[in-house]
Design a protein that fits this description.
Chain A is mainly α. Chain A has helices at 2-14, 21-39, 43-56, 59-75, 78-86, 93-106, 114-117, 123-149, 166-178, 194-216, 226-254, 262-272, 286-294, 315-330, 334-345, and strands spanning 161-162, 185-186, 351-353. The N and C termini of chain A lie far apart (63 Å). In chain B, helix 2 (41-59) packs antiparallel against helix 3 (66-79). The chains are: A mainly alpha (354), B mainly alpha (158).
Amino acid sequence: MDLTGAFGARSAAVGPCREPPGLESLHIGGGDGGFTALLELPPTQAVELLHFTDPSLSSSSQAAAAAVAGIGLDVSPPPPLHAYGALTFPSNSFLMERAARFSVMANEQQQQQNGNVSGETTTTSSVPSNSDRVKTEPGETDSSQRLENNRCGKRKELDKKVKGSTKKKNKSSEENEKLPYVHVRARRGQATDSHSLAERARREKINARMKLLQELVPGCDKIQGTALVLDEIINHVQSLQRQVEMLSMRLAAVNPRIDFNFDTLLASENGSLMDGSFSGTAMQLAWPHQVTETEQSFHHRQLQQLPLPPQQWPYDGLNQPAWGREEDQDQGNGHSSLMVGSASLHPNQVKMEL
Amino acid sequence: MASADKPINTDVPEKDVFALHFLQSLSNLRRQNTFNSPEKTNDRVKKIKKAAYVSMARAAGGTSRLWSRALLRRAAKETNKVVRFSRRKKRVTWLRRRSNRRDPVEEEEKEAERLRNLVPGGGAMETSKLIEETAYYIKCLSMQVKVMQCLVDGLSPK
């Protein structure tokens, strides 16, 4: 039976840190086909995937990867698997061994629990301890069945790898950033059911973003613990909002004094913003031109010249460059800028399509 | 849940984009007849503040961010404008609100609640998305504050 054949070969593979690289590549080659058949991925992507994991991991985890690939190959014929799952356990030593290996891989493989690894000989002793783990295995294989129907979404169960050291954890978080699915590692002594996996993935996402925020808010680098960091962030946001309110009050106070028209506004703006934020000259006439220079593509209207009476400021002309620049960043629609332009001209009008 | 973690993009447009939008909104306000001589300054303050937020939302990329959408929607509600957004995800956000209300038990969830109250549109987001939006929001807010500061400095009498 080919299953036993693959099984025997894989048993050598599961003894990690000792697997010869030739056998390893064999597994990967074999597993590659199994994976792609299973997951309907383009083969190049799966290969890239497997190869991506390999160089970044140490050899022992490569063994784990190979073993996973082997098991992936093993999983692809579904009916025998279900048959095995339906059979009673004691009569099915193969299932026990596979369960042992699976659970070993899913949990502390790095620790070389030799009692489990050499499960070929000590199946009876490992039966009671593995009975609960065996129950997880049909669940995992069921979910791997579902993978055939899903897109490359839920690869978590198949891609459970053993976390050896924190180095690998960093690499896994990098892999999370780059690859189009979540590569979740089951850590030592943690449950491996899908709920806690999802929870853990979510946690990692949240922590990654918190790091971003920490860099943003001044003085948050040194604080340990997410609660305090969040406190700091909340204070920062509140202070910014209060600043906006304060400045708007000051603006309201300032307004009636000066004849509030756009020319003077621009002059004052240019004068004060001249500290490097504007790339061009600070002349009033130059400002709209500079804005158009930075505009990249869009439907253009003629930019009207500045010496217009202030009430007829060319909103459309100015609107489009700005929208053009930022919409290029957002890849928005062209016509939305037009609509916004008209909306700002007639603030009481109804349609504003964004 | 197993969605991709694309590199989080928190680039914010340049200061002049914000400046432009804010100045435009201020000029709009100026054109309104009742603007420059209301008896109470509070109305004016409120209008300016609202204009600031709306212009910030527009400058920060229109509807591509949840909080900007929520801001614009809020502003439009007050002025009875009809604002149409290209994607209507009302049902999804409603469901999210339901699931979000359910557990403020951990300490972190409490903080997330406070953040949600602060950031516009926060009630509809999951925590990880909330944090991303907060980062962008903070950047835009600081940009807007800079713009307003420059304006006030420029306009205030020497």
